[in-house]
Amino acid sequence: MKRPEDTRVVVGMSGGVDSSVTALLLKQQGYDVVGIFMKNWDDTDETGFCTATEDFDDVVRVCNQLDIPYYAVNFEKQYWDKVFTYFLDEYKAGRTPNPDVMCNKEIKFKAFLEHALSLGADYVATGHYAQIRRIGDRVEMLRGVDDNKDQTYFLNQLSEEVLEKVMFPLGHLPKSEVRRIATENGLATATKKDSTGICFIGERNFKEFLSEYLPAQPGKIMTLSGEVKGEHDGLMYYTIGQRQGLGIGGAGGPWFVVGKNLQENVLYVGADYHNDALYSDGLLATDLNWINEAPIEAFHCTAKFRYRQKDSGVTVYPNTDGTVKVVFDDSERAITPGQAVVFYQNEVCLGGGTINEIIKNDKFLDYVG
Amino acid sequence: MNAIYLDHAATSPMHPKVIEEMTKCMHDQYGNPSSVHSFGRKSRQILDRARLVAAQSIGANEKDIVFTSGGTEADNLAILGVANESTKGKHIITTKIEHHAVLHTTEYLEKHGYRVTYLDVDEDGLVSVEELKRALTDDTILVTVMMVNNETGVIQPIREIGELLRDHPAVFHSDAVQAYGMLPINVQELGVDLLTVSSHKINGPKGLGFLYSHPNVRLNPRQFGGEQERKRRPGTENVAGIAGFTEAIKLAQAERELRYEMYLHYNQTFIHVLKEEGVHFEINGNDSPRVPTITNISFPGTNVEQLLTNFDLSGVAASSGSACTAGSVEPSHVLSAMFTENSACTTNSIRFSFGLANNEENILEAARRVAQIVKRLTTN
């Protein structure tokens, strides 16, 4: 094992408090720390304002406080090709993509990792709330201790090979502690607001953003039994289980999105939060990634179907084609195609995949898109 | 590891004698040059001497020198000053390879009713006088072409353009920031009406420059206030800075040929080591006349961000000579003009620029470090 001062750690710095504290902690531990800002998206507006410029300015201030070198790297093209194209394609297909999962897989822990390695890095570090456990040659990814902040859901596509070269210095800290450390050390970003939403959309209106890239096709809102309830603005604007923004009221409600018919351009709704159509008992996942070894036979574990949801018990049945069938211990509400399903054995994240089909009574649901 | 500075075209270290002059001035002279007392007069003497030294360095008259806050302000004052004053036309000719201090100023004017022609350059980075001739119209009020390009070091045909414009009423401006101190400059002989010079590129202090302005050129001021600089650039003068700038000019004049030879030697030594080490590279603008201080090298199979970061982490300070947005490097507009936007050269080229911080030893060392990095990045 190299001494810290001989170990170069390249920190992916966003200009936020988490990555700032990441760099601080590594510096305090004596590593040879290099800060790098990734520019993945250009949102320069008419007035010349660009979020990336502001964020990079924060990276510069923090790195100067820590007296570490800082650089930037431009991955706009890779981001567009690998993340944004996927994002649009999924919406076109009526699904609800997860660009953060793809960004981690293709950009932060691929393009960025490669860049860092070309700079002589031994490790890359990010401010993600996840932990890495090294047992001999084995490297596992564990949930962050801050349950509310755990980000392993978004990191489910990382491989053990990648994790070997990764550090998550914040994984054992609660968020409040990270803020406290930032404040105590007077970091320029100590009180900076956390970014919310998808990075390239930022605080903007999601619908407006999407409409700039995909033509919206308004169509009918119906119940599964064919009763027309209103008009939708375009199927891509809705996700399974959604209540807000349907613009239909009246008797029988409240109304929830229960499915989509892409061919007919119909949005299906059903009354009541607990509408039976929203419930299913299994799913088929594709694009599986197993962080350590891939399962060869069925096993029981827990799973998350969306970020910040509590785990649910599931049984995973591996198929010969690499996909898996996931059967829920108890029926689940609003499982959404395109989102990630991520598996856990207690604290260890096993990996995950993309929800491709929803299963109910041993059949694929045909109304979820 | 000691860091080696190969970015003199970005800025240069101050010469010890410059620092000495400035320190002396800061200690002794705090008067305002416009004041009607002995304190003021002493500062005014420094200013007068500076103006004379600056004027003589380019074969001009003292009254034609306007001290500014640097090259950018001088470029802005030249272009906006002429455009706003002229009633003769609305057409400006410049080139695609100018510094942004020029390009962003002409773009601003385009939004205010001016028509701007941006001349192409060939693959060697040269502006064509013939093309410029064709672009000239009766409506052309200003031609602005840099003397030496800041990214490639390519020397532009200023004398020929000056010759061409002798029979045309358009005012001729040249940004000579990278040429001054390396090339002999005489504004009369070159036929230049306006000339930009910067202090910190010639081992003077930052925040200073001057604009030469021919007495026949009517300049509309950009700032308003006192009577300083004959109202063309009001504001109390940076006397200590000007004292340092004067010393830097004097040194640059006295040592010009010596420096030229020395930097040429550094340049050649650097290139020689890269060749010896078996690095695959090409010099951009290699077939054109160039100043010895700047060399722009394309390393196929690499990219700028990777190179610059690696260089810095290994203690070699260079640059891509191009604009940065959010700290990441955009393809160079100069190299895009030379090789088209999609050419790999625009994203794999590095500018190395030599000067006062260099000696034979650190040039050799830097070249070895560069060679090692490029080889490592291209053999993987």
UniProtKB/TrEMBL annotation, chain A:
Gene3D superfamilies: Adenine nucleotide alpha hydrolases-like domains (2.30.30.280), HUPs (3.40.50.620), Translation factors (2.40.30.10). It is found in: Cytoplasm. ATP binds at G12, M13, S14, G15, G16, V17, D18, S19, M38, G127. Residues 280-355 form the tRNA-specific 2-thiouridylase MnmA-like C-terminal domain. Its EC number is 2.8.1.13. Residues 149-151, 306-307 are annotated as: Interaction with tRNA. The record marks H128, Q339 as: Interaction with tRNA. The keyword Iron-sulfur does not apply. Signal peptide: none annotated. It catalyses: S-sulfanyl-L-cysteinyl-[protein] + uridine(34) in tRNA + AH2 + ATP = 2-thiouridine(34) in tRNA + L-cysteinyl-[protein] + A + AMP + diphosphate + H(+). One of its GO terms (cellular component) is cytoplasm. One of its GO terms (molecular function) is tRNA-uridine 2-sulfurtransferase activity. Residues 207-270 form the tRNA-specific 2-thiouridylase MnmA-like central domain. Keywords: ATP-binding, Cytoplasm, Disulfide bond, Nucleotide-binding, RNA-binding, Transferase, tRNA processing, tRNA-binding. It is an enzyme of class 2 (transferase). The active site is at C103 (nucleophile), C199 (cysteine persulfide intermediate). Residues 98-100 are annotated as: Interaction with target base in tRNA. InterPro entries: MnmA-like, MnmA-like_C, MnmA-like_central, MnmA-like_central_sf, Rossmann-like_a/b/a_fold. The keyword Transferase applies. It comes from the Bacteria. Pfam families: tRNA_Me_trans, tRNA_Me_trans_C, tRNA_Me_trans_M. Belongs to the MnmA/TRMU family. This is tRNA-specific 2-thiouridylase MnmA. It comes from Gracilibacillus dipsosauri.
TrEMBL record, chain B:
Residues 119-142 form the EF-hand domain. Pfam families: Aminotran_5. Its EC number is 2.8.1.7. Its cofactor is pyridoxal 5'-phosphate. PANTHER family: CYSTEINE DESULFURASE (PTHR11601:SF34), CYSTEINE DESULFURYLASE FAMILY MEMBER (PTHR11601). One of its GO terms (molecular function) is calcium ion binding. This is cysteine desulfurase. Transmembrane segments: none annotated. InterPro entries: Aminotrans_V_dom (IPR000192), Aminotrans_V_PyrdxlP_BS (IPR020578), Cysteine_dSase (IPR016454), EF_Hand_1_Ca_BS (IPR018247), EF_hand_dom (IPR002048), PyrdxlP-dep_Trfase (IPR015424), PyrdxlP-dep_Trfase_major (IPR015421), PyrdxlP-dep_Trfase_small (IPR015422). It is an enzyme of class 2 (transferase). Keywords: Iron, Iron-sulfur, Metal-binding, Pyridoxal phosphate, Transferase. Belongs to the class-V pyridoxal-phosphate-dependent aminotransferase family. NifS/IscS subfamily. NCBIfam families: PRK02948.1. It catalyses: (sulfur carrier)-H + L-cysteine = (sulfur carrier)-SH + L-alanine. The lineage of its organism: Bacteria, Bacillati, Bacillota, Bacilli, Bacillales.
